[in-house]
Specification:
Radius of gyration: 22 Å
Order of helices and strands: HHEHEHEHEHEHEHEHEHEHEHEHEHEHH
Strand order of the largest sheet: 6-5-7-9-8
Distance between the termini: 46 Å
Number of domains: 3
Helix content: 25-40%
CATH class of the largest domain: Alpha Beta
Largest sheet: 5 strands, parallel
Structural class: alpha/beta
Bound molecules: 1,3-dihydroxyacetonephosphate, iron/sulfur cluster
Length: 385
């Protein structure tokens, strides 16, 4: 396996945390040495390294992280909550147990003295990968040729690359999360008649529909086809162009799962994430972000039954943390899990922390300066609404 380690650069403004040999090797240890250890054998080492770093490091854990990792998180939350908490902290090092676009968002929002590391740089997001900046620029050029671009405001879900956030910043648009997508759409439609919503067609469709936009006033933009696969008339009729992207975890939920769980458990309440397909959201009782799902379950009446349509690690955790409820997964046969989130293992976390203790920063995520400013603009617009 290829070594992932990079040596701490003396030119970096961040000072080494502590000069001391790592338990694995005095030189920069690669994660390979760690991967030989079983999952549950590194807890003491992780805890020891974490304790030595003290307030100089903060560990962030997204709700979808596995338990062996999230147990070490100083903060648990969605990507935006975590990035904001890290930026408000005194820590020099932000260890993001999540996926790449989240670490980029943390890097955009961080203070100048902070650095962001991602324990496994291979932890991406299949949805974010469905929108390349070159495809977005090409789509915009096509809208310009049709003289439609002036009527369109771009919005990108936070699950996207920094370059797409920067694109939105430069074109008067903004970022949204699953918690504030409705506010972002209202804000956009107050300024322009149409929205280009990237990269999750489901979040865009579900949110626009909930705001009263009929399905006929929405069209999918397929980046692999000319004009997204649309006629000029179709684009003129649409109030929202939905980028053809989806989450590989949430798109697996089907309306039949809702029918089946209702048949088996009469009276059960169904709650799903808005990254699920439209037909699933329509059949559910509630739909909302991970934060919304957690709040609903936390406030539920004792003895109530819930089927939850989101990533399995969060659902299992909710079931354990609220034993006075019956919390089950919406698709008990499939149990969709996010394979890229799962790449952050206790072994990677141990490696990153022990390297930091040894004064070496590995796996930094850094958004280039020009891109950072424009992406920050799009994030700031979101924070203002
Ligand atoms: P939220 O935590 O913002 O609801 O997002 C869910 C998700 O899929 C993160 O990748
Ligand atoms: Fe991306 Fe879906 Fe995984 Fe979230 S759950 S990181 S949207 S693939």
């Amino acid at each position: 396996m290829m070594a992932l380690g990079i040596q701490f650069s003396p030119a970096s403004p961040t000072q080494p945390v502590e000069r001391q040999a790592s338990p694995v090797s005095a030189a920069c240890a690669t994660v390979d040495n760690y991967l030989l250890h079983p999952d549950d054998s590194l807890h003491e080492r992780i805890a020891a390294a974490r304790a030595r770093l003290g307030e100089r490091a903060i560990i962030l854990g997204h709700h979808y992280q596995r338990d062996e990792v999230v147990r070490f998180a100083d903060c648990r939350g969605d990507s935006l909550q975590l990035s904001r908490q890290a930026a408000a902290s005194r820590a020099e090092m932000i260890v993001f147990c999540g996926v790449h676009f989240m670490a980029q968002s943390a890097d955009i929002l961080r203070q100048p003295h902070q650095r962001v590391v991602l324990p496994d740089l291979g932890a991406g997001c299949s949805m974010a990968d469905m929108a390349e900046i070159s495809e977005v620029e090409d789509a915009w050029a096509q809208l310009e040729r049709l003289r439609l671009a002036d009527e369109v405001l771009p919005i990108t879900y936070i699950n996207s690359s920094a370059s797409i956030k920067a694109f939105c910043g430069r074109h008067g648009g903004l970022v949204c999360t699953s918690s504030n997508a409705a506010r972002a759409l209202r804000w956009a439609w107050q300024r322009k008649p149409r929205v280009l919503f990237m990269p999750d067609q489901h979040l865009g469709r579900n949110t626009a529909y909930a705001l009263g936009v009929p399905l006929e006033a929405m069209t999918v933009w397929d980046p692999r086809q000319d004009y997204g696969g649309n006629s000029w008339e179709r684009l003129r009729q649409a109030r929202i162009f939905l980028w053809k992207g989806h989450c590989s975890v949430h798109a697996r939920f089907r309306p039949e799962h809702v029918e089946e769980v209702r048949r088996r458990f009469p009276g059960i309440r169904v709650i799903v994430h808005p990254e699920c397909p439209f037909e699933v959201v329509q059949k559910a009782d509630f739909s909302g972000s991970t934060d919304f799902i957690i709040r609903q379950i936390a406030a539920a009446a004792a003895g109530s039954e819930w089927a939850v349509g989101t990533e399995v690690h969060l659902v299992n955790r909710l079931a354990r943390e609220y034993p006075h409820l019956a919390v089950r997964h919406l698709d008990s046969a499939g149990c969709p899990w996010c394979s890229t989130m799962f790449r952050i293992s206790p072994q990677h976390l141990c490696w990153i922390l022990e390297e930091l203790v040894a004064g070496r920063i590995v796996n930094t995520v850094e958004v280039p300066a020009g891109e950072r400013e424009a992406a920050r603009l799009a994030l700031d617009r979101m924070l203002e609404i």
